[in-house]
C-alpha cells in the first residue's frame, strides 16, 4: 500500500483553493511531516528501551449513534481489557459538540468502569482544569480513587476551544496559568492540606476536601507539539500525555529529550516518568483485512474532527475563514488525512506486524500506548482489536524478557 498523497488531489483544486487547503493542513497538522513510512527513531539521550504499556483510549465521534450504545461498548471493552491484562483505560472530557459527545464527564464514566473492573488503571485524558473548580475536582476524583481502590490517574489540559469556556469565561486568556494554580490546589488538597476561599460576605473560609486518595495520584499533562508544554510538564514533575496526530516519531523523541532535560533542571528524577502516546488503532488477526475495515470509519471520523476544527477556526483561532473551504478542499484534506493515519499516525495491522512501529515509539521515549480503538467500527471488530492488543502486549513483554 502506498502512503504518498496523490499530487492530483491538491493540484486539481487550482492555485487559490490549493493555497487555502494547504494552509488549513498546516494549521491542523503543522508538525506531521510527509505521510510516508518513518524510519526508526535515532537513539537520543531521552530514548528508552523499556517495554511500553498497552492501554485503551476512547474518543468516539459517531454523531448519529446513541450515547447508551457507546457507553455500553466502553464498559464491555473495559471488562475485556481488565481480564486480558491491558494496563489502563483512558476517557476524555468534551463539551458542547457531537465530536466526542458521550464524554462530558470522565470521572462519572470511570466510576462506572471502576464498578465493573478489578485491576486495570482508570485515567482521564484529559480533565480541562480551567473549566472546573479544583475543589470539586479534588472531591470527585477522591471518590473515584476510593471506588477503584487506588487505580485512578488524571491528565490535565488547559483547553483550546473557546466555546468550552462558557463554563468559566474569565479563565480563557490565562488558561495555562489557571491550570498551574489549580494543580497546586489539587496537590495541597490531596495531601491533606487546606486552601482558603472567600465565603459569603467576603469572609475567608479554610477548606479541606474529602475523601482523600490513599496515595498521591499519578498526574499527566496533556501536550501535543508545543515544546514549552513538554518543558512545563518536566518543571512541574508530571507525566506527559501526547498523541501521534500532530507529530512524527522523530519529533516526539526530540520533545521527550526536552522533557527529561526540564525534569533534571528542576531537580526531579526522569526515571519513572511516563510518556503516554494516544494513537488511532485497529488490530486484527488477519492484517490484510484492516485497511478495508477502517477506511470508511476513519473518513467519517476525520470529517467530524474537521467540523470541530471549523468551529475553532470560525472563532479566529486558526486565522482561516471556514466558509472559504469548499467540498473539494475537504475531500483533498480527508484523503491526505486518511493516508497519513494509515501510514504514520496510527497503529494498524496485527500484533506481529505492529511490533516494529511500537519498538520505534519505545526508542523515542514512549512508555505507554494509548490505543484509540473506537472510531466508528462495528462492536465485534472493536472487541477483536482489544484481544489483539493483548497479544501485542504479551509479544512485547516476551521479547523484552519481562513477566507477562
UniProtKB/TrEMBL annotation:
| Keyword set, alphabetical order | Monooxygenase, Oxidoreductase
Q: Could you tell me the superkingdom of the organism this chain comes from? A: Bacteria
- Matching Gene3D superfamilies, A to Z? Luciferase-like domain
> Which residue ranges does the record annotate as region Disordered?
23-50
InterPro entries registered for this protein in UniProt: Bact_Lucif_Oxidored, Biosynth_lucif-like_mOase_dom, Luciferase-like_dom, Luciferase-like_sf
Which residue positions does the secretion signal occupy?
A: none
**Pfam families documented for this protein:** Bac_luciferase
Q: What's the protein called, per UniProt?
A: Siderophore biosynthesis protein
UniProt domain Luciferase-like: residue ranges: 69-367
Amino acid at each position: 500500500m502506498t502512503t504518498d498523497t496523490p499530487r492530483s488531489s491538491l493540484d486539481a483544486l487550482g492555485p487559490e483553493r490549493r493555497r487555502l487547503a494547504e494552509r488549513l493542513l498546516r494549521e491542523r497538522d503543522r508538525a506531521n511531516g510527509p505521510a510516508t513510512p518513518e524510519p526508526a527513531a535515532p537513539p537520543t539521550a531521552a530514548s528508552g528501551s523499556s517495554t511500553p504499556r498497552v492501554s485503551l483510549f476512547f474518543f468516539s465521534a459517531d454523531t448519529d449513534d446513541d450515547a447508551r450504545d457507546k457507553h455500553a461498548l466502553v464498559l464491555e471493552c473495559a471488562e475485556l481489557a481488565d481480564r486480558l491484562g491491558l494496563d489502563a483505560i483512558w476517557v476524555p472530557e468534551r463539551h458542547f459538540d457531537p465530536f466526542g459527545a458521550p464524554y462530558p464527564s470522565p470521572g462519572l464514566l470511570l466510576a462506572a468502569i471502576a464498578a465493573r473492573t478489578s485491576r486495570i488503571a482508570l485515567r482521564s485524558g484529559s480533565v480541562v482544569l480551567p473549566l472546573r473548580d479544583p475543589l470539586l475536582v479534588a472531591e470527585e476524583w477522591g471518590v473515584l480513587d476510593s471506588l477503584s481502590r487506588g487505580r485512578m490517574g488524571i491528565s490535565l489540559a488547559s483547553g483550546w476551544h473557546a466555546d468550552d469556556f462558557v463554563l468559566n469565561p474569565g479563565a480563557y486568556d490565562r488558561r495555562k496559568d489557571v491550570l498551574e494554580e489549580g494543580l497546586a490546589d489539587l496537590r495541597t488538597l490531596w495531601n491533606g492540606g487546606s486552601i482558603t476561599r472567600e465565603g459569603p460576605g467576603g469572609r475567608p473560609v479554610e477548606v479541606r476536601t474529602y475523601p482523600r486518595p490513599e496515595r498521591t495520584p499519578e498526574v499527566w499533562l496533556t501536550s501535543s507539539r508545543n515544546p514549552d508544554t513538554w518543558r512545563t510538564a518536566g518543571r512541574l514533575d508530571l507525566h506527559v500525555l501526547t498523541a501521534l496526530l500532530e507529530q512524527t516519531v522523530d519529533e516526539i523523541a526530540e520533545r521527550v529529550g526536552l522533557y527529561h532535560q526540564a525534569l533534571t533542571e528542576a531537580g526531579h528524577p526522569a526515571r519513572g516518568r511516563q510518556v503516554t502516546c494516544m494513537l488511532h488503532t485497529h488490530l486484527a488477526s488477519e492484517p490484510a483485512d484492516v485497511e478495508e475495515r477502517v477506511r470508511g470509519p476513519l473518513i467519517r471520523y476525520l470529517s467530524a474532527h474537521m467540523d470541530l476544527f471549523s468551529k475553532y477556526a470560525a472563532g479566529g483561532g486558526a486565522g482561516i475563514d471556514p466558509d472559504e473551504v469548499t467540498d473539494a478542499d475537504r475531500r483533498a484534506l480527508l484523503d491526505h488525512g486518511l493516508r497519513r493515519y494509515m501510514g504514520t499516525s496510527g497503529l494498524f495491522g496485527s500484533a506481529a506486524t505492529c511490533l516494529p512501529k511500537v519498538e520505534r515509539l519505545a526508542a523515542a521515549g514512549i512508555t505507554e500506548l494509548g490505543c484509540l480503538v473506537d472510531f466508528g467500527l462495528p462492536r465485534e471488530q472493536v472487541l477483536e482489536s482489544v484481544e489483539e492488543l493483548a497479544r501485542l502486549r504479551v509479544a512485547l513483554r516476551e521479547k523484552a524478557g519481562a513477566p507477562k
